[in-house]
């Protein structure tokens, strides 16, 4: 039996409106047939249990889109079915992403009763003008009220903020961060605004409607974030994720450690060990195409590939170097099939170590804070 943990990711692809910065697989639809979606998600979950059988599920994650728009019955059905299809850990972590509107906070009690034990709320900003700019449907007050409701129903909760927004000064971000810390629980996700191709912000910026803060200013905000959160007892454990000791999101750790997970729902990805390979699966991303495929064939898979050899090592490296603790070389060899230092070689590693971007020890390979801040450049050099 494979005793490595298994995570189950479930994607809910619908939102009430599309935020102008967001390139996630999220769609706005007039009516969603909840019963039909429930039954299709359960069907594909059963397929996933045939893909990765005999495992112990340690985490579930309802992501989106906006999974807080799911009927609690749908969430309950998926949790119950997961428990029936696999063994599950005693402390099974079940996270759900929620938007902080009053309607959704009104569902928290039912979601907790369904088995959800951790929520991640998309606050995005604690400034009214910024929320309008980001196209959010909630006010600061409504978001803080939703956070209070979350605190009452879930021992574990987190919220997301987006910083390095147009016109935001370092000082303004420092103040917003203090307000965030005053209401934070055990975990915070703090993302720098990125402009993704295909979003409205991409065209708006190209047309000169706004500009991002200069690179040095964004770097200063990142460094301030790292420093202040560490001081407050929630150091970064990943580039954008901060937690009190022991309070990291275990589901996301599965991704970053290159462990196994199955993906259910439109556009969901899976990665799980099959023999010597890591099997990579991807489901159809269009909600209607996915729904029809599941109703016809029992799953919406559009791509299955086996990642092997150097590709597997590179994938694992890209994930593992995001973590502040970096890569555990023994675990890495178990999940990626080789020691990272041996595969990369001294010639590639030495300049990165000398430049202060990587650290190598007998047990670990990790990016330093400076390395994590410019991880893409570091990876390009390592992998080229
Ligand atoms: C799947 S989304 C959010 C879930 C939920 N629908 C919400 O909006 O609250 C996950 C998080 O990614 C972050 N995010 C999405 N697009 C981003 C971008 N372009 N730049 C920075 N952060 C982004 C946001 O903080 C968001 O909460
Ligand atoms: S940020 Fe959240 S609510 Fe906004 S479009 Fe993306 S997934 Fe939907």
| Lateral strand order in the biggest sheet | 7-8-6-5-4-3-2-1-9
Biggest beta sheet summary:
9 strands, mixed
User: Based on CA inertia axes, which overall geometry fits?
Assistant: globular
Estimated share of beta-strand residues? 15-25%
Number of strands: 15
* Structure class: alpha/beta
Bound molecules: S-adenosylmethionine, iron/sulfur cluster
Q: Which stretches are poorly predicted, pLDDT < 50 over at least 5 residues?
A: none
State the share of residues found in helices, binned by percent: 40-55%
Helix tally equals 17
Summed over residues and divided by their number, the pLDDT gives a mean of 96
Report the radius of gyration as a whole number of Å. Answer: 21 Å
Distance between the termini: 37 Å
């Amino acid at each position: 039996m494979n005793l490595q943990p298994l995570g189950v990711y479930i994607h809910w692809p619908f939102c009430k409106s599309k935020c102008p910065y967001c390139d996630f697989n999220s769609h706005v639809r007039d009516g969603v047939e909840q019963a039909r979606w429930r039954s299709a998600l359960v069907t594909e979950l059963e397929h996933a249990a045939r893909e990765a059988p005999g495992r112990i599920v340690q985490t579930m994650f309802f992501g989106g889109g906006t999974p807080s728009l799911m009927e609690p019955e749908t969430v309950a059905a998926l949790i119950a079915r997961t428990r029936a299809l696999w063994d599950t850990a005693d402390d099974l972590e079940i996270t759900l992403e929620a938007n902080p509107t009053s309607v959704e906070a009104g569902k928290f009690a039912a979601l907790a009763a369904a088995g959800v034990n951790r929520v991640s709320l998309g606050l995005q900003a604690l400034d009214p003008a910024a929320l309008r700019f980001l196209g959010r449907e909630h006010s600061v007050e409504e978001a803080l009220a939703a956070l209070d409701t979350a605190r009452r129903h879930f021992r574990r909760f987190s919220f997301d903020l987006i910083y390095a927004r147009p016109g935001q000064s370092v000082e303004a971000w420092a103040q917003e961060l203090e307000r965030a810390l005053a209401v934070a629980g055990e975990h915070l996700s703090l993302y720098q605004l990125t402009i993704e191709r295909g979003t409205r912000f991409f065209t708006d910026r190209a047309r000169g409607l706004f500009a991002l803060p200069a690179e040095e200013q964004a770097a200063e905000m990142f460094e301030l974030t790292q420093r202040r959160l560490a001081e407050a007892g929630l150091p970064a454990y990943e580039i954008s994720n901060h937690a009190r000791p022991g309070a990291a999101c275990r589901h996301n750790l599965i991704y970053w450690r290159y462990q196994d997970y199955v993906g259910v729902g439109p556009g969901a990805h899976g990665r799980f060990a099959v023999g010597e390979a890591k099997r990579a699966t991807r489901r159809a991303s269009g909600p209607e195409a996915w729904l029809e495929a599941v109703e016809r064939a029992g799953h919406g898979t559009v791509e299955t590939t086996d990642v092997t050899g150097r590709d597997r090592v590179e994938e694992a490296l890209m994930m593992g170097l995001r973590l502040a603790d970096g890569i555990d070389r023994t675990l890495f060899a178990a999940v990626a099939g080789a020691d990272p230092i041996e595969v990369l070689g001294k010639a590639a590693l030495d300049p990165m170590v000398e430049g202060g971007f990587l650290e190598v020890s007998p047990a670990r390979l990790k990016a330093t804070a400076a390395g994590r801040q410019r991880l893409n450049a570091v990876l390009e050099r390592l992998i080229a």
